[in-house]
Design brief:
about 120 residues, alpha+beta, 2 domains, flat, metal-binding, CRISPR-assoc_Cas3_HD
Length: about 120
């Protein structure tokens, strides 16, 4: 990684480099690396045993996050009705978590609540 100081349009100065300094030229530029090897390893990475379950849980987490943002307080903030520069009375992440807790009920272990989705 190279860090530049921008002095204006099209005028930058290389300040420092993190990593292999030999991979950069004097101006801090580096060519894109090319290789003939198969670095994607699709055969290794696509055989996830729980791929479908992870996909379902990811979609569910996104839905809960959006539901947390559907609260009246959050919507008023987005629409500019809450003009004061103060913190939220409750965070949308907290609302999402409470919805999740209501759905999974009294499950005491991960296996129990995961059983609702898998």
């Amino acid at each position: 990684m190279a860090c530049y100081w921008t002095h204006g349009k099209n005028n930058t100065e290389l300040l420092w480099v993190v990593g292999n300094r030999n991979a950069f030229n004097l101006q801090g530029r580096v060519p894109t690396n090319r290789t003939q090897r198969n670095i994607l390893r699709k055969t290794d990475e696509d055989s996830w045993q729980f791929h479908h379950s992870l996909q379902i849980l990811s979609v569910f987490a996104a839905l809960l996050h959006d539901l947390g943002k559907s609260s009246v307080g959050f919507q008023q903030k987005l629409q500019g009705h809450d003009s004061g520069l103060r913190g939220d009375p409750y965070r949308h992440e907290w609302v999402s978590m409470r919805i999740f807790q209501a759905i999974v009920g009294k499950a005491k272990t991960d296996a129990e609540w995961l059983g609702f989705f898998c």
